[in-house]
Design a protein that fits this description.
alpha/beta, 7-stranded mixed β-sheet, 3-stranded mixed β-sheet
């Protein structure tokens, strides 16, 4: 890449369940972040790097832009260290960004209007978003009534000076190219921040961990205990096409362990089958990969209730390791 590009960080922020991780996966064309219909699926900041070309005016050459997206947990108030951890991660990403992408769910009648960010549980998100150049992505337009979209777009057009509002569907990809162009135009000029072939700073182990946790959401649905965490305990690359993984699912009580394991171990087997397939697809990148996955469930009593418990299952605050 030439030094003469636009490059910077774009924090993807919003209320819970607005489609932030679905959008990041769509942009990167890769299964990187866990996605489910359950709010608070995302718990960590996740970096994804994507380059786009900005058309030059007239007959000039196109200018490249490297966008370092930071996917974040949905912002909402709530008691307990885990919710604070997620909230702090999102607000810190917004504070550090060159551009903020505020994603809005166009099907959420309460959450799709700017007044929602004036409420106590979301005011910090609104304040953090306004401190930087901002793009509003009005998401899930494939599911919204067309006559309702125009007033939503108009309402957000005065949210902050210089704001651009782009209707999109992260699920289908409609409008995503225009959204990236709007973000890229607001990035500062400078050298590329990352190598041209870099997609994420997250390891394959983290991606596998996210996929297993995602499958927990899919397999258990409403039965899923909120305080579930996944940790990779061993990772062995037997060859370029064969991988052995052992992972632990941490819950807080024996009753939760019984839910995850299922009668006669049926549920944990189904979870393992689905997770193996998804990990193979995500890490194999079309090359074909055999994944051997061993899952274990253990009780880590009340791990979500304190900072030490969070650290014990792999959640650390910014600046910690």
């Amino acid at each position: 890449m030439s030094d003469d590009i636009r490059a910077g960080f774009c924090a993807i922020v919003g209320l819970p369940n607005v489609g932030k991780s679905t959008l990041l996966n769509r942009i990167l064309d890769r299964h990187l972040a866990a996605v489910s219909a359950k709010p608070q699926t995302t718990r960590d900041r996740i970096l994804g790097v994507h380059s786009v070309a900005l058309p030059a005016p007239g007959d000039g050459d196109a200018v490249m832009a490297q966008i370092a997206y930071v996917d974040t947990p949905g912002v909402q108030d709530g008691r307990g260290p885990l919710r604070r951890y997620m909230r702090d991660a999102a607000l810190a990403a917004a504070d550090d960004a060159d551009v903020v992408l505020l994603l809005v769910d166009s099907t959420d009648r309460r959450g799709r209007v700017p007044e929602r960010l004036a409420e106590a549980d979301a005011a910090a998100l609104g304040d953090a978003s306004r401190r930087h150049p901002i793009v509003i992505g009005v998401n899930k337009v494939d599911r919204a009534a067309k006559l309702e979209l125009l007033p939503v777009i108009e309402a957000w057009s005065s949210f902050a000076p210089g704001v651009e509002v782009v209707p999109i569907s992260a699920l289908t990809g409609d409008g995503v190219a225009a959204l990236e162009q709007a973000i890229a135009r607001r990035l500062p000029l400078g050298p590329a921040l990352f190598p041209a072939d870099m997609v994420t700073d997250r390891s394959p182990q983290f991606i596998a961990q996210e996929i297993i946790r995602e499958q927990l959401y899919h397999q258990l649905g409403k039965e899923l205990p909120y305080a579930c965490a996944v940790q990779i305990e061993s990772w062995s690359e037997k060859s370029a096409h064969e991988l052995a993984i052992a992972a632990v699912i941490a819950v807080e009580r024996e009753s939760q362990k019984a839910i995850v394991v299922g009668r006669g171990g049926a549920r944990i087997r189904e979870l393992g089958i689905a997770a193996r397939k998804a990990i193979s697809e995500a890490l194999g990148q079309g090359r074909g990969m055999t994944v051997h996955l061993s899952l274990f469930v253990k009780v880590v009593s009340e791990w979500s209730r304190g900072v030490a418990g969070l650290r014990s299952v792999g959640y650390t605050a910014k600046g910690e390791s």
